[in-house]
Amino acid sequence: MPLTVQLPPCSVLLLAGGRGQRMGGQDKGLLEWQGRPLIAHLHQLTRGLTDDLIISCNRNRQQYAAYADQLVQDEIADFPGPLAGIRAGLAAARHPHLLVLPCDVPRIDAELLYDMREVASQNPATPLMLRQGEHWQPLLCVIPVALAEAFERAWNTGERSPGRIMRNLGALALQCPEQDQRLANLNTPELLSLHARIPE
Predict the structure, then answer these.
(1) Is 115 helix (H, G, I), strand (E, B) or coil?
(2) Which helix (H) or strand (E) is 120 found in, with range?
(3) Does the residue 84 lie in any domain?
(4) Contact status, residue 56 vs residue 73, Cβ threshold 8 Å
(5) What is the pTM of this model?
(6) Crossing angle for the helix pair 38-46 and 110-122, nearest 10 degrees?
(7) Is 190 helix (H, G, I), strand (E, B) or coil?
(8) Which residue, 78, 122, 131, 154, is the most exposed by fewest CB within 10 angstroms?
(9) How many domains does the chain have?
(10) Could you tell me the residue range of the domain that residue 162 belongs to?
(11) Tens of pLDDT, residues 150-170
C-alpha cells in the first residue's frame, strides 16, 4: 500500500527505560540485533516521521542521546514500569499525538506505523492500541497528548497499567494477525538470537 496521504505531525516515544530483567539486567535498547543496537533499528524506522523523537531511558543517557531529539527519564527511581516512561513522554511531547513503541520490537514496519497514525488522526481524541486476537499491545499505541491529565489522575490513584488506562478511556483497537512477526517482542536472549537469523 503506498503511503501517500500526508498525516498530521506526531511526537514519537521509544521506551528504553526498563530494568531488562529478562535480559539479565542489561540495558535492552543497547543490545545488538543484526549488527546494530535495538534502539538504532527503531530510530531508523521513526526518524523520518517526526521532528520530536523522544527516548525514555534511565541509564546510558549519553549513548541514547545520539538517537533522540529529547531524552526523558522516570521521576522516581527503581524502574517503576512503562507507565512512568509514557507519563514523561506525554509531558515532553511537542505535537498533539504521541506514538509509543518499546525498544524491543525491531521488526515493526513503516506500513503498520502509518496505519496506526492514520486511524489515530481519524479519531483524534481517543487512544489507539494494537491488538492481536483478544490480546492488547498497550506499549504499541498512539495517545492524544490532551489525555496527559487523565494519565496523571490514574497514576495518582495507584494505577500502573497503561493498557487499563487506555481501555478505560475508550481505546480503539487496530487489529493485527495472531502470529504477526512485526510485533515480535525480542525481550529474552533466546528470542534475540532466534530473530537475528530471520531476515528483516
Answers:
(1) helix
(2) helix 110-122
(3) yes
(4) yes
(5) 0.89
(6) 50
(7) helix
(8) 78
(9) 1
(10) 11-196
(11) 999 999 999 999 999 999 999
